[in-house]
Amino acid sequence: MIYPAIIINYQCVLAKAFAPPTGHGVIYEVIRVTDGVFLFLEDHVQRLKKSAQLANANLVCSLSEVTRLLTQLVKMNAVTTGNIRLDYYFHKGKITYQAAYFVQHRYPTEDEYCEGVRTSLHIAERTIPNAKIWQPALREEIKRIIAKKNLYEVILVHPDGYITEGSRTNVFMVSAGTVYTAPEADVLPGVTRKYVLQACSELSVPVVEKRMKVDRIFDMEALFFSGTSPKVLPVAFVDDFLFDAYNTIVRQIMKKFDEISDKKN
Description:
- The chain is α+β, with helices and mostly antiparallel strands and 265 residues long.
- The chain has 2 domains: 5-103, Aminotransferase class 4, branched-chain amino acid transferase, N-terminal domain (D-amino Acid Aminotransferase, Chain A, domain 1); 110-264, D-amino Acid Aminotransferase, subunit A, domain 2 (D-amino Acid Aminotransferase, Chain A, domain 2, Alpha-Beta Barrel).
- Helices cover 29% and strands 33% of the residues.
- It is built from 6 helices and 16 strands.
- It has helices spanning 41-54, 63-77, 110-115, 136-149, 191-202, 248-264, and strands at residues 5-8, 11-14, 25-34, 37-38, 82-91, 94-103, 117-123, 153-157, 162-166, 170-175, 178-181, 207-209, 212-213, 222-227, 231-238, 241-242.
- The strands form 2 sheets. Strands 7, 8, 9, 10, 11, 12, 13, 14, 15 and 16 form a 10-stranded mixed β-sheet that branches. The protein has a 6-stranded antiparallel β-sheet with strand order 2-1-6-5-3-4.
- A hairpin with a 2-residue loop joins strand 10 and strand 11 (178-181).
- The two termini are 26 Å apart.
């Protein structure tokens, strides 16, 4: 689906006029809107500011400003459910260009939530892991791998041999009633990740944040992704290795996350 209207520097234009500057860095957020409600918007704005700080970009924006911007975008496109990308381009520490627009999304199917999805391991790392900064070369590389292997997502492995995160998600592993995930310093602190950790706390499920060597993944009983589009999504296969997509802990976390999301939004 093509969304005709976008907002550039707070002005409404046609999508074909979108010609962002070259040679700039980009900090961004992808925000899910469902029936006109922007999910976890305050968290996204806070992370946007954190990304700008880590990138040494002088970004000034408020929750009310972003809300007005996204509300205008939804109205212009007459779309109330989907994913919106909010970009801030920066150069030499200054924000030079701002854009907000709907992007194509790929929400999991009911079968994928039930049976789990396929993924694969890939050695790569993001620059400044705690900041959401656009890396087009890495994104294109991941897109090719996903298409070639018919995957939902790719799990990134640091060159030093430990698991970090998905290309667009955070990764969690389950073994003997405990949830394992990479330490926050090594990954993007996902908005959904934050509420997965809250769900684990409310369920009294212990969580261990530690660097996990890649070969340890095959000792785990279950894996799942968290993210804006997938929410909480079980993994069935890592390459050809099968995991328990019906794991009780994973199912409990999925349910509790949905409860938290409904209350939060």
